[in-house]
């Protein structure tokens, strides 16, 4: 099986600062990636289903999903992704400021691939993004 030349990551994040940190971290990545950023669950599902202005959207290799989103929560979006037979195999990493045990347990119960609490320090945040990438694009095998 050939490795992809470039991995597509869908970031579902309403905080512009956190989205910017992810973008900066990915620029310094060892794995070539294209970041696709949406700000809420409605737009995330439109992207994933190639609707509402996203008809050319690629199928992401990885989804980074915040929990605290406007409208529907990240948990609700995760549940919808896992219930869709065309989307359910995409790895979904919860990337949230919440370290609450309740949020972590709920995320895993709904099928999260992993849960990462956003570090407050910029260098630690970058290291966390690189660790996620190294695992999903360097160690794990993901469906094409």
Automatic annotation (TrEMBL):
The keyword GTP-binding does not apply. Pfam families: Response_reg. Keywords: Phosphoprotein. The modification 4-aspartylphosphate is found at residue 66. InterPro entries: CheY-like_superfamily, Sig_transdc_resp-reg_receiver, TCS_response_regulator. One of its GO terms (biological process) is phosphorelay signal transduction system. CDD domains: REC_Rcp-like. Residues 8-133 form the Response regulatory domain. Gene3D superfamilies: 3.40.50.2300. The keyword Phosphoprotein applies. This is Response regulator. It comes from Paramagnetospirillum marisnigri. The lineage of its organism: Bacteria, Pseudomonadati, Pseudomonadota, Alphaproteobacteria, Rhodospirillales.
């Amino acid at each position: 099986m050939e490795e992809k030349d470039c991995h597509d990551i869908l970031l579902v994040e309403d905080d512009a600062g956190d989205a910017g940190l992810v973008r900066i971290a990915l620029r310094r990545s060892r794995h070539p990636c294209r970041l696709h950023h949406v700000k809420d669950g409605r737009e995330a599902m439109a992207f994933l289903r190639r609707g509402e202005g996203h008809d050319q959207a690629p199928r992401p290799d990885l989804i980074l999903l915040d929990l605290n989103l406007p409208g529907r929560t990240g948990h609700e979006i995760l549940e919808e992704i896992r219930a869709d037979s065309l989307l359910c195999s995409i790895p979904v990493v919860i990337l949230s400021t919440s370290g609450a045990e309740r949020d972590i347990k709920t995320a895993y119960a709904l099928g999260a691939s992993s849960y990462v609490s956003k570090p407050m320090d910029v260098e630690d945040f970058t290291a966390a993004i690189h660790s996620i990438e190294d695992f999903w694009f360097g160690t794990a095998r993901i469906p094409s």
